[in-house]
Q: What sequence folds into this?
């Protein structure tokens, strides 16, 4: 019978579980995000660098293909080596796309809910605040993993396949380091995007703030270092913090007088905790005026 | 039978202010479609009570239960069984009504195909069938209210909490909303907790009423019983020799007290209709000059409860007379 002829009846059928309910938010958000032109264009553009790196990996494993390359000197051979420095550079470049993507896609996830006062509708349902945040993080995780983790693992997998088991046995920590490094990165970028969009509610401003958070703070950190002739100012730069941690995970050396990976990790934990605290404070079903 | 809402010594603090000051009450019963009105002046704690029932606020002391489940500790179980229509605009503006309801249905635990089906069904039910593919942000105020109602009932909850559902509606839309609320309890067996400033809405729809003032319950009554009681209580003014009237009224089981010459206060038994009085007075050669019953309107109950009307001041509503 046609729906309009049937009339309303109370639903009495089976209910889905907590996991299925948790996945409802990403299921509705992903198609919407992929419907945005900027997001699609950026997703495509962000795959150029991994393709270039994949080409480089192929080339480094087939040096004989190019005449003269096999007989080149140490400097060229070092340049062609697939090691921690190669993956650190790969991650550094690819992470820029992730920031821009988060700046475009992130604010659209929470800001509209706040602007439309939709949070009471979510929280009046069997969805906790933690689940809501987790679901929103999952939306960004899926998107950012597409431009960071997946291409990274593809390049690593390609090198492992071309380099053989000997290379993999000697360099498996690179894959592990990249995985962990990108996970930390996605977590930070996602939290920054969600927190700033929860804070300002206005999508455009929130997007600009996400970019500013990474690029302006990096500049500010440099200014502090120069003005006060210190090195700890770098701890204010999220990009520097993450790059130092990546280098540690990938076994790449960093400048000796700069904050080390341990200090950067501590700064990252403080930063993540602060972002989460702000997010929890802003995401309330009802505004309480004390 | 498990009460629908059981509140026991509930205290809720927001910041340093105590909003609910140890309130206790049992309202409704599970499995019976009843509507409960929640009334009170501004700042009485109505919204805080609703939000506490929804698990938005943690009680400082005491408990709040819905259908026997603790609203704070068993929040998830409670929320699968209730629907909530907020007072303010709470919609996802850039979604079509169907997508919006589907999302809300799935979040409430409906499987995806059932959520889609129910979204269409519910939108037709509330009168938004033709506009269901329009974005909710383009809806008029009345349509938004209906969309809010639809999202509250899509999953067939046992209790629907409606916060000012007729806000901003024109008379026709308001009447339609009230009809829908009545249908929810009478035809679909849902319980309704209705918070409204419009006493006539509450009176029209609700079976029970709770009145809050300054974070405390100042009055709780069963409106149906109240109406029944009032209907039995009649003031009668007659002309002629009324010495035999008391005996005549006793014949039909009515109790009568003479207040002054020609003025009687009569309590009719449940099974006796007021029309009997006309027959009896005619038989006793008396002429009814005035027949009134004192009817406590909800407005009077409310004003007395919140202290704006002294208990003795009970305006009479004339219902007949010659």
A:
């Amino acid at each position: 019978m046609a729906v309009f002829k049937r009339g309303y009846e109370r639903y009495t059928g089976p209910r889905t579980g907590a996991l299925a309910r948790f996945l409802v938010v990403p299921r509705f958000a992903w198609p919407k995000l992929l419907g945005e032109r900027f997001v699609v264009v950026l997703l495509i553009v962000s795959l150029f660098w991994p393709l270039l790196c994949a080409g480089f990996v192929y080339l480094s494993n087939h040096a004989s293909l190019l005449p003269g390359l096999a007989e080149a000197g140490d400097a060229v051979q070092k340049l062609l080596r697939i090691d921690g420095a190669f993956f650190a550079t790969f991650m550094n470049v690819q992470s820029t796309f992730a920031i821009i993507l988060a700046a475009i896609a992130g604010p659209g996830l929470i800001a509209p809910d706040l602007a439309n006062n939709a949070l009471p509708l979510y929280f009046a349902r069997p969805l906790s605040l933690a689940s809501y945040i987790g679901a929103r993080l999952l939306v960004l995780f899926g998107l950012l993993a597409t431009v960071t983790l997946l291409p990274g693992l593809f390049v690593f997998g390609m090198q492992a396949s071309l380099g053989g088991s000997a290379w993999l046995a000697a360099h498996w920590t690179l894959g592990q380091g990249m995985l962990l490094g990108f996970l930390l990165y996605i977590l930070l970028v996602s939290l920054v995007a969600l927190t700033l969009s929860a804070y300002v509610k206005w999508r455009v401003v929130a997007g600009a703030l996400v970019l500013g958070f990474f690029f302006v703070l990096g500049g500010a950190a440099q200014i502090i270092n120069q003005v006060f002739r210190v090195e700890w100012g770098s701890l204010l730069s999220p990009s520097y913090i993450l790059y130092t941690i990546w280098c540690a995970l990938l076994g790449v050396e960093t400048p000796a007088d700069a904050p080390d990976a341990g200090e950067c990790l501590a700064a990252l934990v403080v930063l993540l905790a602060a972002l989460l605290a702000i997010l929890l404070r802003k995401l309330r079903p009802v505004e309480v005026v004390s | 039978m498990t009460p629908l809402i059981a509140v026991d010594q509930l205290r809720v603090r927001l910041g340093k202010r105590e909003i609910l000051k140890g309130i206790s009450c049992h309202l409704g019963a599970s499995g019976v479609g009843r509507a409960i009105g929640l009334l009170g002046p501004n700042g009485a704690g109505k919204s805080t009570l609703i939000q506490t029932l929804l698990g938005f606020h943690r009680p400082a002391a005491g408990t709040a239960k819905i259908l026997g489940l603790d609203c704070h500790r068993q929040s998830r179980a409670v929320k699968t069984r209730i629907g909530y229509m907020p007072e303010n605009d709470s919609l996802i503006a850039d979604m079509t009504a169907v997508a919006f309801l589907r999302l809300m249905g799935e979040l409430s635990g409906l499987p995806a195909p059932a959520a889609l089906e129910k979204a269409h069904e519910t939108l037709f039910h509330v009168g938004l069938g033709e506009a269901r593919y329009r974005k909710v942000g383009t809806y008029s105020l009345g349509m938004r209210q209906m969309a809010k109602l639809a999202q509250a009932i899509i999953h067939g909850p046992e209790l629907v909490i409606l916060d000012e559902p007729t806000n901003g509606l024109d008379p026709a839309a308001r009447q339609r909303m009230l009809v829908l609320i009545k249908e929810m309890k009478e035809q679909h067996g849902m319980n309704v907790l209705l918070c409204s400033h419009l006493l006539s809405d509450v009176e029209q729809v609700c079976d029970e009423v709770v009145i809050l003032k300054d974070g405390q319950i100042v009055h709780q009554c069963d409106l149906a019983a109240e109406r029944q009681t009032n209907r039995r209580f009649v003031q009668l003014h007659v002309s002629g020799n009324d010495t035999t009237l008391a005996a005549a009224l006793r014949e039909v089981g009515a109790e009568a007290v003479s207040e002054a010459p020609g003025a009687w206060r009569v309590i009719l038994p449940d099974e006796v209709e007021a029309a009997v009085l006309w027959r009896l007075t005619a038989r006793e050669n008396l002429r009814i000059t005035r027949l009134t019953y004192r009817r406590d309107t909800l407005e009077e109950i409310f004003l007395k409860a919140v202290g704006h009307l002294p208990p003795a001041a009970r305006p009479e509503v004339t219902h007949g007379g010659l």
About this structure: Chain B has two domains: 5-221, 227-318. Chain B has a mean pLDDT of 86. Residues 203 and 298 of chain B are 6 Å apart (CA to CA).
